[in-house]
From TrEMBL:
It holds the Pfam family STAS_2. Residues 5-81 form the MlaB-like STAS domain. InterPro entries: MlaB-like_STAS, STAS_dom_sf. It comes from the Bacteria. This is Chemotaxis protein CheX.
Amino acid sequence: MAKRVKLDARLDSAAADRLRAQLKESADSDLTLDGTAVEMLGGLCLELLLSARSLWSARARAFAVDAPSAAMIDDLTRYGLTPAALAGDPA
């Protein structure tokens, strides 16, 4: 069963250490991130999420962002990405 983590509302540089810790705590399990509350997605946290997606894929673990908020989707679009960029399936 996948571990579920609710993402903070503001994923800015101040939230990066907390996000990194949450990801590190979940490293040995499939992971679903709940994006419903995200109001802002900054570049540093986006890099952490993209890196985590790659790491989970390399470990043949499921990685997903469930129900990204409209604001999160807007921020992803601003970076030239779609929610699919954060989807990771086991290799």
